[in-house]
Amino acid sequence: MAGTCIALVSGGIDSPVAVARMLATGWKIYPVHCSQEPVTGPEAEEKTIASLRHLLTMEGSIGDAARANLSRELIITPVADALAKFTEKWNHSEYFIHMKRLFNAIATNRAEQVGASHVLTGENLGQVSSQTLGNLGGVEIATPLLPLRPLLAFDKVDIMAMARILGTLPISEGIEVCDALGPSKPTTVANKEWLERSEQRAGGLQSLARSSFSQRRIVQL
Predict the structure, then answer these.
(1) For residues 169 and 47, is the Cβ–Cβ distance under 8 A?
(2) Residue 147's domain is classified under what CATH number?
(3) What was the pLDDT predicted at 129?
(4) What one-character DSSP code corresponds to residue 70?
């Protein structure tokens, strides 16, 4: 099966590997990067751009698939202002779940432009607090897009080995600062009613996503 998806590309090790695996199966991919500048530096965006450009210049089947099916337009969407709304005492422990829900809602906005049916991520079961089974469920219901998680059951060591073979590992390695605003003790069990209530209090998830997406810019790959 192959179709059209929105890829959430973070600049970390996992997401370029996920993109490459789905390119290999014929998926048309439109990449989106959610930028946390100025809370963080430009490194995540720079690594995202570099890893996607690397896939486009590779020799062999992955490179051919990237040149055929990877959109040359990378959408950069600023999210720092929206994420700051989830640092209050009453919602901070769910910060990482709100963050991923926001990213998925932003992906929905892009999907409406290009006719995508799925959202692609590099999520791996249990790797971080937002990727427990319950929290993954709490994240995926924030969008009508169907989830693509080709790395879900892989060990991190295996993912790093794949990245090394692809040549994206040296690009992606380094400190990840996506948790700059995160709590010291994040929740590992999502509560749908509480998440929705907190997001409504912060202005509404869809409204926050639309506002962030309206400030997007395009980087040509």
Answers:
(1) no
(2) 3.40.50.620
(3) 64
(4) B
